[in-house]
Design brief:
The complex is a heterodimer of chains A (141) and B (132). Chain A contains one helix and eight strands. Chain A has a four-stranded antiparallel beta sheet with strand order 1-2-8-7, with no helix packed on it. In chain A, a hairpin with a 2-residue loop joins β1 and β2. Chain B has no helices and ten strands. A five-stranded mixed beta sheet of chain B has the order 1-2-8-6-5, with no helix packed on it. A four-stranded antiparallel beta sheet of chain B has the order 3-4-10-9, with no helix packed on it. Chain B is elongated, with a radius of gyration of 19 Å. Classes of the chains: A mainly beta (141), B mainly beta (132). At the A-B interface, α1, β1, β2, β5 and β6 of A face β3, β4 and β7 of B.
């Protein structure tokens, strides 16, 4: 259990600490090029399976392309600004443009079972572990 | 890459606090675009993971305060194995240089992007000056 506390601020702090402790961990074994590449990805284990949580606020679903092959997942698309033209800018901090990023996960993936969900500016990829890759209990005879 | 320019992530910035909270949970500064037209000031903020009910916008004189609370219950029973960013509530404040018609402020949150339209008060709109 990641956080079982009743105080929401303490719970958030625990989550932030947990995220910090796996910051750029070697779980992906250096197979994933481009830390610092857009968009940023967090990987979680949930039971036997994995979830990639990707921050992509303000994107058109139609502008997003997700491909899965073996244990590689490729994420490409573009993020476009739809601002009116006759305005003067005070601040520009948001990033727009096209991106193309591939991650390879160090597990066997059931590629047909991958599901994607985009909500509130967050893309979640549910990556089921291949049946033959799941840990098995070894019985002592 | 053949496309040339590759997008780089802008590292999230923590909110600098005057006062410390008892629990050291972090707040982040949302990436913001602000632009101005003749009629209004528009503030566009990225707050991924924040839902409508958890946004508060407050205008006190010329102080605009925006807060977005993250619903992090989705992270329950998830064990991080590799991370590139952290999460938290969002908070930012601006001092407005324009007089705003506060009754007409509108806010919209879509796909983690908050758009605030702050219409300028009538007397503040630019006037074309005719040469007599």
């Amino acid at each position: 259990m990641l956080f079982a506390r009743s105080d929401p601020f303490q719970a958030l702090f625990d989550l932030q600490s947990a995220l910090d402790s796996s910051l750029r961990s070697d779980w992906l074994g250096g197979t994933t090029a481009g830390t610092g590449s857009f968009p940023p990805i967090n990987m979680f284990q949930k039971g036997d399976d994995f979830v990639a949580v990707i921050e992509l606020p303000g994107i058109n679903k139609a502008d997003l392309d997700i491909q899965a092959k073996d244990n590689g997942i490729r994420l490409s698309g573009k993020k476009v600004a739809d601002y009116p033209e006759d305005v003067s800018a005070h601040r520009r901090e948001r990033i727009f443009g096209s991106f193309d990023r591939t991650i390879s996960v160090p597990i066997k993936v059931d590629a047909d079972g991958i599901k994607a969900e985009y909500r509130d500016g967050i893309l979640a990829l549910f990556i089921p572990r291949a049946e033959e890759d799941k840990p098995r209990k070894v019985k002592i005879s | 890459m053949a496309k040339g320019h590759e997008l780089q992530v802008r590292e999230k910035q923590e909110v600098a606090k005057d006062q410390e909270t008892t629990v050291p949970a972090r707040y982040y500064v949302p990436l913001t675009d602000i632009f101005e037209s003749d009629d209004a000031l528009t503030v566009v903020m990225e707050m991924p993971g924040v839902v409508k009910d958890n946004v508060s916008v407050d205008l006190d004189n010329d102080q605009l305060q925006i807060e977005g609370k993250l619903d992090f219950s989705n992270y329950e029973s998830m064990e991080p194995v590799y991370t590139e960013y952290n999460v938290g509530h969002y908070q930012r404040a601006f001092t407005l240089s324009n007089k705003i018609d506060r009754d007409k402020i509108s806010a919209d949150l879509k796909d983690g992007v908050l758009t605030l339209v702050l219409p300028k008060a009538e007397e503040m709109k630019p006037r074309k000056i005719e040469i007599g």
